[in-house]
Amino acid sequence: MMESTGNAAIFEQARARIARPFGHFINGLWEAGSGEPIAVVNPATEQPIGSIAAGGEAEVDRAVAAARQRFESAEWTRMPAAERERLLLRLADLVERDRDELAAIETLDNGMPFAPARMMAVGSAISAIRYNAGWARRMTGEEAPVSVPGRWHGYTSREPLGVAALIVPWNAPFAITCNKVSAALAAGCTVVLKPAELAPMSGLRLAELVQEAGFPDGCLNVVTGLGAQAGAALVRHPGVDKISFTGSTATGQSILRETAGRLTRVSLELGGKSAVLVFPDADLEKAIPAVAMGIFGNSGQVCAAGSRLFLHDSVFDRFVTGLVDFAEKLMVGPGDQPGVALGPLISAGQKERVMGYIAAGEAEGAQIATGGSAPDEPGYFVKPTIFVDTRPDMRIVREEIFGPVLSVMRFSDDNLENLARQANDSIYGLSAYVWTRDLSTAHAMARYLRAGSVKVNGSGMEFALPFGGFKQSGIGRENGREGVEAFIEKKSVMIGW
Fold first, then answer.
1. Mean pLDDT value of segment 100-128
2. Three-state secondary structure along the chain?
């Protein structure tokens, strides 16, 4: 280990925090698992850092019952909205208090380097909780003019859906968990959380902080285990009113099939193959590092990663040279080491998947400009990889890789609609990125691109703006007012007088 002196104590504290075997968190109590524990592995070392309980139908049933009992309790239903806001703001303060430890847990559990874990993963979580807390007192209805005969007062109200099942992924577990949990609680729902078995530790730590913040028992319940057992049992459970899932498109499709008969409310934030378009007038000094980290950040394990790069002929050579130079200077290694920019992939299976795509790209005729290999050392590392001479029919261009692999294409046609058609040639439509200093181009591409989010001259997550995808990138939206309304039912009321 080469931790800096200042961080060594934080990582020691984080290791101690997660070393104990974790059970399920149900109705304010920790329950020991009944089956064989599941080891949780540090992807940078391939060594266990702790274990979680293997949950299934029985544990899910108890968790849903606890959430239902709390949802229907007078303590929760009559709690003033201002009190829910206060509790959420208290939770945000606790997360901020433990920011360094939580970031270290995320580094050990997920592999992301400590600096981005602290700034982005935990920083985003704090921002999300505080933003969503404000909606607890703003989920208002409206009066409507009534035109039917008679004298009527017509209005709408917004009411919480009930028990929300939140199933979160392993790529940004803490930020996504905090966003979903705070939105559901702000709306007045109660929660059963199923963390990803590959990176569950920060979610379990959040349960302790929710309890410390003063939320009533049963507001947040956590069941750990494999997706095929605990996750599937949660999706099947008839007591769940809402499912919010972030993960693969294939799993999202499976959730829709399973819940279709019950018409369970579902939000899905799924895969992406996001296009990046760089025009001749772009500020290349800003664009090159931003585009690079847009695909290499978190080792490419980002649903909105800009993995398809379209470069205008006039900037192609300079841009690719700059990208290669930037990528080759990125330090790859364990996230607890100073200066590391890229950590490992999450698992041996994910590393094998990414290396398989790299081999497929070469077999189909794409050329590797840099990377394409894995360091010969423990850990699930893959070097940042840039492909040129790629075609739209190649697997590396069409399929979501979820790794640090960028496919570069060139364009010369100045017809923006034609370019947008190329960028839109994907089953996905989560995000898109445009680099230009021309306002006409920026507004036109924002209109033509079929993606849930279009960012011009930059990237980042803004919690005041809704986030979600077109096409097979999902259903529904998170963030913004829509993110809390995803846990709300609207009711219409007419009173005659």
1. 97
2. CCCCHHHHHHHHHHHHHHHCCECEEECCEEECCCCCCEEEEECCCCEEEEEECCCCHHHHHHHHHHHHHHHCCHHHHCCCHHHHHHHHHHHHHHHHHCHHHHHHHHHHHHCCCHHHHHHHHHHHHHHHHHHHHHHCCCCCCCEECCCCCCCEEEEEEEEECCEEEEECCCCCHHHHHHHHHHHHHHHCCEEEEECCCCCCHHHHHHHHHHHHHCCCCCCEEECCCCHHHHHHHHHHCCCCCEEEEECCHHHHHHHHHHHCCCCCEEEEECCCCEEEEECCCCCHHHHHHHHHHHHHHHHHCCCCCEEEEEEEHHHHHHHHHHHHHHHHHCCECCCCCCCCCECCCCCHHHHHHHHHHHHHHHHCCCEEEECCCCCCCCCCCCCCEEEECCCCCCHHHHCCCCCCEEEEEEECCCCHHHHHHHHCCCCEECEEEEECCCHHHHHHHHHHCCCCEEEECCCCCCCCCCECCEECCEECCECHHHHHHCCEEEEEEEEEC
What's the rounded mean pLDDT across residues 55-74?
97
Interior angle at CA 167, CA 162 and CA 170, nearest 5: 155
121 has a pLDDT exceeding 70? yes
Query: What CA–CA distance (Å, rounded) separates 344 from 263?
Result: 39
Catalytic residue of the set 178, 189, 219, 303: 303
pLDDT confidence of residue 4: 53
269 is catalytic: yes
* Range 449-465 average pLDDT: 95
Share of the chain above pLDDT 70, in %: 99
Strand partners, 39: 51
pLDDT given at position 420: 98
Cβ atoms of 89 and 59 closer than 8 Å: no
pLDDT tens digits along 346-379: 999 999 999 999 999 999 999 999 999 999 999 9
Choosing from 85, 269, 400, 478, which is the catalytic residue?
269
Angle between helix 81-97 and helix 123-135 axes, rounded to 10 deg: 170
pLDDT reported for residue 414: 87
Neighbours of 256 (CB within 10 A): 16
pLDDT range class, residue 2, cuts 50, 70, 90: very low
Can you tell me the mean pLDDT for 488-497? 97
Residue 285 annotated to the active site:
no
Calculate what percentage of the chain has a pLDDT beyond 90. 96
**CA 269 remoteness from chain centre:** 8
